[in-house]
Amino acid sequence: MIRTLFLAFVLSFTAVANAQVQVNAGPYVPSPNSVVSDMLSLAAVGPADFVIDLGSGDGRIVLTAAKVYGARGFGVEIKDELVKLSNEAAQKQGVAERVKFIKQDLFKTDISQASVLTMYLLPDTVNMLSDKLQKELKPGTRIISHDYPLSGWLPEKYEQFDLADKVQISGVTTTIIYLYVVPAQVAGRWSATLPASVAKGAATLEIKQQLQKVSGNLTLGVREVPLQEMKLVGDRISFSMPGERGARPHAFTGQVKGGAIEGLVESAGVKTPWSAKLAPKS
Q1: Measuring CA to CA, which residue among 96, 101, 142, 145 is closest to residue 120?
Q2: Which helix (H) or strand (E) covers residue 87, if one does?
Q3: Is 17 a member of any domain?
Q4: Does residue 198 sit in the same domain as residue 117?
Q5: Domain contains 11
Q6: Where residue 218 sits, what CATH number does that domain have?
Q7: Count of alpha carbons within 13 angstroms of residue 255, beta-carbon side
Q8: Domain of 156: which CATH number?
Q9: Whether residues 136 and 216 fall in one domain
Q10: Burial (0-12, 13-18, 19+ Cβ within 10 Å), 189
Q11: 3 has pLDDT over 70
């Protein structure tokens, strides 16, 4: 008898331990229609975009993106009745060929197809998604978060305004929409090829990165030059390098393509190509 009870306890404990814990992403609270319009406008959604809404509720964000802005996409929702309602609305509004709604755990959803990702989720859920957003979304993907910021991320833009409809949702009129742009991964040592007007001989570009925050320096022979005004927006990087003997700074712009950067550097009003290749990690 004791052995049977012990075995039952072990099996019960194992079942609980192996169960997948469901994260509560928050109650169903729809974004007011005026906020939906502002969210999609801030993200500059257009016909070329693929919009994914995490926690899509009645589908209004993806439906509006398709019907008004000509985009494609899908919504992810955990409640059966809301998924059914959203797909029926897509049929009625004539956009079912471009959008769909699925019942799925948003933490397990493949979001790599998105060019725009929207969410109105609880603060803890928003921040639990941070790693997933960095790993799965392409550089340049726009993220729109309603009311709650992504901890550690720097918004490219944000809009704050008062809206009477929000009182019944949050108890206050304050509404904030945050726009983030997924950064390319640029940290490391890059072997740079610079025009003779900037430097002769070998050049090494060292970049440090924390999400969108970047800093770095150029090593020219034995001389190390700190870079100024360094900025990374999606796959676009820019910085300036001080000129010698009081000359105007060299202004660099470039596009990151995996392990390469290609761009232009402006010196004394003349633009010439420059490039860099990421050195293998030692």
Answers
A1: 145
A2: helix 80-92
A3: no
A4: no
A5: no
A6: 2.40.128.20
A7: 3
A8: 3.40.50.150
A9: no
A10: middle
A11: no
What Å distances lie between residue 179 and 65, 140, 183, 222, 251, CA to CA? Answer: 16, 12, 13, 41, 26
Spatial contact of 29 and 94, defined as CB atoms under 8 Å apart: no
* Residue 220 belongs to domain spanning: 188-278
- The tokens describing 178, both together, are 């945050």
| Closest-CA residue to 69 (of 97, 40, 46) | 46
Query: What's the rounded Cα separation, in Å, for the pair 163 and 161?
Result: 7
* Domain end among 181, 205, 227: 181
Predicted TM-score of the model (pTM): 0.85
Say how many domains are in the chain: 2
R_g over Cα of the chain: 24
| pLDDT band per the 50, 70, 90 thresholds, residue 1 | very low
pLDDT of residue 172: 80
Q: Which tens digits make up the pLDDT trace of 42-64?
A: 999 999 999 999 999 999 999 99
Tell me the per-residue pLDDT of 62-93, one tens digit each, with 9 for 90 and over: 999 999 999 999 999 999 999 999 999 999 99
Q: Is 108 exposed, middle or buried (0-12, 13-18, 19+ CB in 10 A)?
A: exposed
Q: Do 148 and 197 sit in the same domain of this protein?
A: no
Residue 67 one-letter amino acid: K
The distance of Cα 237 from the centroid of its chain, to the nearest Å, equals 16
Residue 100 backbone phi and psi in degrees, to 5 = -150, 165
